[in-house]
Amino acid sequence: MIKRHWVQRYDTPPVRTGRSRVIQSWDTASKGGPENDWSACTTWLFQDGRYYLLHVHRARYDYPELKKRAQALAQQFRPTKLLIEDAGTGSALIQELRRLGVAAIAVKPTADKIARMSAQSAKFEAELVYFPERAPWLADLETELFSFAGSRHDDQVDSISQALAQANVGISPADYL
């Protein structure tokens, strides 16, 4: 669905400005353990109509550790928007983070995974999505992304489609000027 040559690259991400948005997007799994799905968080800089992937975190956690990791990543990146898929453990995580003063946004999926990523593929094709040249998590991410929808896991892809869909929600055209 996403072609490798559509992804743009950067050496150093742009500097965060007052017009930038940092978006963190979580797709959470129900349980930890090697036989279960992953919990995945992608962190993006949205600036000047472009989407820069800054960081990917993917691991298998039981809920208490998931909550700690979500708090730590929110503190590290100070996102403008922290998106969490409102299903399963994500629903509990949203409530817990809100109680702790983290403004988590519940996102209810409106279509299946393939339709959601398909809707965002135009951003890749238009060369608006940038990945770093190098990162320790990049090979695993690209393996999953470029083989979607035929890959065993799709947690990072779900996080990406959610982030790209929600990145500019609530932003007026004047914010681009």
Secondary-structure element pattern, one letter each? EEEEHEHEHEHH
**Biggest beta sheet summary:** 7 strands, mixed
Look at the helices and sheets and give the structural class.
alpha/beta
Rg of Cα set: 15 Å
Averaged pLDDT, please? 85
Envelope shape? globular
Walk me through this protein's architecture:
By secondary structure, this protein is an alpha/beta fold. Helices cover 34% and strands 24% of the residues. The chain is built from five helices and seven strands, in the order ββββαβαβαβαα. The protein has a seven-stranded mixed beta sheet with strand order 1-7-4-3-2-5-6, sandwiched between helices. Strand 3 (39-47) and strand 4 (50-59) form a beta hairpin. The termini are far apart. The model is unreliable at 171-177 (pLDDT under 50).
Give a quick precis of the structure.
By secondary structure, the chain is α/β, with parallel strands linked by helices.
Features:
24% strand, disordered C terminus, globular, 177 residues, alpha/beta, 7-stranded mixed sheet, 5 helices, Nucleotidyltransferase, domain 5
